[in-house]
From TrEMBL:
This is HAD-like protein. Transmembrane segments: none annotated. One of its GO terms (molecular function) is phosphatase activity. Gene3D superfamilies: 1.10.260.80, HAD superfamily/HAD-like. Residues 1-10 have a biased composition (Basic residues). Signal peptide: none annotated. InterPro entries: HAD-like_sf, HAD-SF_hydro_IA, HAD_sf. Residues 1-23 are annotated as: Disordered.
Length: 251
């Protein structure tokens, strides 16, 4: 696990004219995006409820953790069960507000883009070819990459691919769930929450650095220089995190 960077996370403006000589803020190396609920609108509540009903598990049980705990051939059957639900939902995919504008802007600034999702590859490919043809995302980390979010492994893999570094200090993770915020935070990346009515409680979570209501709000933020929030009491946050990580390592 890479060391956590100090908060608040900051990056220099992408607009060269707004950079100041001697500005110590690092340059942004790239942005990692979640898919469902982030790049596309997603009927997540009913989709995940359908998955749990089909698998016979309660809301408190992580879907992928449950599937990976099954022996074969039950594991393969369970994977196909949720893939079929995702294929059905894929037909109703809609681009998130501000999606095309943000991606066009990032491409104009030559900012690398990657995907880290718990979905499988078919809905991801459908989204990109339908709404973002010609916009490059690489690497694309799907659920086949293990362990999945909230583990930071996928984001660290992307950082290694881009920068040949062991941490995500030069990156931003954009998502809509606690898994996204926690994975990004643990990887050392800055985190941006795309807020909605269902996840509004995460706006004040210690793993969330910045909140936007639409994707294209990031354009002005990045042009002028990214700056995450200041922790109210860094020592208390650090103590709490150490306890959480110790519990996690023992579990």
């Amino acid at each position: 696990m890479p060391p956590r960077p100090l908060r608040p996370r900051r990056f220099a403006p992408l607009d060269p004219e707004k950079r100041i000589e001697g500005d110590g803020r690092p340059e942004l190396k790239g942005i990692v995006f979640d898919v469902d609920g982030t790049l596309c609108e997603c009927p997540q509540n009913y989709m995940f409820a359908e998955m749990r009903a089909a698998l016979g598990i309660p809301k408190s049980t992580d879907i992928l953790d449950h599937i990976y705990s099954l022996p074969e051939p039950a594991q393969s059957r369970a994977h196909e069960t949720i893939r079929q639900i995702e294929r059905t939902a894929m037909a109703a995919q809609k681009p998130q507000s501000g999606l095309v504008a943000l991606m066009s802007y990032l491409d104009s600034r030559n900012i690398k883009k990657a995907i880290c999702t718990r979905n499988f590859d078919m809905p991801v490919a459908h989204l990109l070819t339908t709404f973002l043809p010609g916009s490059k995302f690489e690497p694309i980390v799907t659920r086949e990459f293990r362990p999945p979010k909230p583990d930071p492994a996928g984001i660290l893999h992307i950082a290694k691919s881009w920068m040949h570094e062991d941490g995500g200090n030069g990156l931003i993770m954009v998502g809509d769930s606690i898994d996204d915020m926690t994975a990004g935070w643990r990887a050392g990346a800055a985190t941006v929450l795309l807020v909605n009515d269902a996840n509004r409680h995460l706006a004040e979570h210690q793993h969330t650095d910045l909140v936007v209501t639409k994707l294209d709000e990031l354009i002005e933020i990045l042009e002028n220089g990214f700056e995450g929030r200041v922790e109210a009491d860094e020592e208390k946050v650090d103590a709490k995190v150490l306890v959480e990580e110790a519990i996690e390592e023992k579990s």
